[in-house]
Structure formats: C-alpha cells, structure tokens
Amino acid sequence: MKKVVSFLLLTSFLALSVFAEGQQDGQASFPTKPIKVVVYLAPGGAGDILARKFTDIASKYTDATFVVENKAGAGGIVAMEYVAAGKADGYTLMYMTKSNISKLVTTDSELDPMVFDWISLMQIDPECVITNNKSDIVTWDDVVADAEAKGGNQLWLGPAAGGLDHVTAQNIWKASGIGAKWVPFDSGGKALAGLLGKQGAVYVGNPGETLANPDYSVAAICAEERLPQFPDVPTFKELGVDGLENEIMWRGFAVKRGTDDAIIAWYDDIFEKVTNDPEWKATYEPQGNLLVHKTRDEFNAMVQFDYDAYKAAR
User: Where is the signal peptide (predicted)?
Assistant: First the structure.
C-alpha cells in the first residue's frame, strides 16, 4: 500500500513539474502568433509611418510577425478603448503620444491612462511654431506684431482641438501675452497644407515636419537650447518668452496592464535594439528627435505626471 501511495505522489510531482516547465517554455517562446500594433491615426500619417518603421526594423531582430491596425478617432481615445477592452496577453501593442493624454483630459474621458502599462518611450520631440516663408509672417517678431494688430483674431493651425499642439499653442499665447484662435484640421498634414494656402499665420508642431518643404520656417522652438539639427532656430527662452522649455511631444508604446513581466522583458529587448539600430537613427535623428529608450517604470511615471498636470491645469 505504501508503495502505491509513494508511486502516486511521485507521478503527481512529475506531472506538476512537466506542467510548470511547459508554462515557462510557453512564456519563453512568446510570441506564437502575430502581434497587432494598434495606431491611433489613419494610414499615411506621421505616427502611422513611425509605427510601421518600428515593425520593419524590429523584424531584423525577431521572427515575430507584426500587423499594424489603424484605429483612428477621437484623438486616440478610440484606439485606447479598443486596447483596454482586449486581453492583457502581450499580443496587442499600442503606439501612443503625449497628445493622447491631453485629449483624455480635455474631453473628460473616464478612461484612466494607467489601465495601460507604458513599456517604452522611444522619442522626445520639442514643440515649435512653424510659419510660411512665402507670407509676410515668418519670424517670431512677425507673429507677435500680426497677433497684436489683429487683436486676438490671428489664426493658428494644427490637428485635433484639445490635443497636445492645441494645448501648447494656448501655453504659448499665455506665456507671450498674445491672443489667437485655434483652427483644427483632421491631421497635421492637412493643417500644414493650410499654412501654405495662407489659411492661417502659424502651425504648431515639431521641427522635423518642415524638412519636406523649404517653404516652411521654424520661427521658435520649445527647448532649453538650440537643436544641432536646426542651429538657426531660436528658442522661446532666447526670445524672452519663459516657461515653454518642457513643451514636448513624446512617442512610445504601451500594452494593457497585467501583461506578464516575461513578455514585457521580451519587448524591452526589441525596443533597445531598435533604438540603437542605424536605420532608426538615420531616419529620426535628422528631424531633431531625441531618441531614447525609457523603460516601464520611468515611462509610467511620466504618463501619470502629464495626466495629473493636464487635469490640474483645467
């Protein structure tokens, strides 16, 4: 009888050991199916292009299959709600920017950004004021003079009312003591086209957006120092406008909170390799982007800080 009991106990122990090893092997072999990369913008936008560039470069370092899925709408809220409703299994990776956090607050969304685990911050890009070289308003002094002459009716262009660019514009108006009106477009590309069409005096965005067309000029940039890639562009601080040094756009990726640590470690390795990849650097460093690899603890803290700051400013 004792031999039978001992045999049963040994069999149970071996079965549990095999099961545990199988579980570990399952985690170690992640992924076993395609990974969806959810992008909050329509195909062809700058963020969509970035997400697809990430998947192309990531594919150098893994056999995983990435499938970009565009979920445009409500300044990113549609994409976030989609990911929040899914499983925390690591198979849905979400591309997001600081603008989406601003949008949650300005629309009074009940979605808490910390329902996600913000696992990799990859780019930090200063906000700036862009003008049309073929207009009469090119420099920051021109912008201020025109704004004063129009008594608060100067038009500033950009995407998504309530998004980061809009909030940045409001902060610039406040810091510089001028008044203007925001004209939202469906996308940054359409707003830039509107600037060339002289539908407004200013576009708020990032300096890299001017590289495709010499008719654009960066009048002033939100940074502590001039960017090496744009040495002739003055900072707002140089121009006597203080308090705008931290108006930045960050870009990164998140998964649903609760995703296994082993899976996040797998992603962390991929993000590190992409950040150091020569093709990634050659694509984004000339645009004035600071390329970084900030992992989950620091990135989660940044998102929480930005969310709380936007709420406090309302």
Answer: 1-20
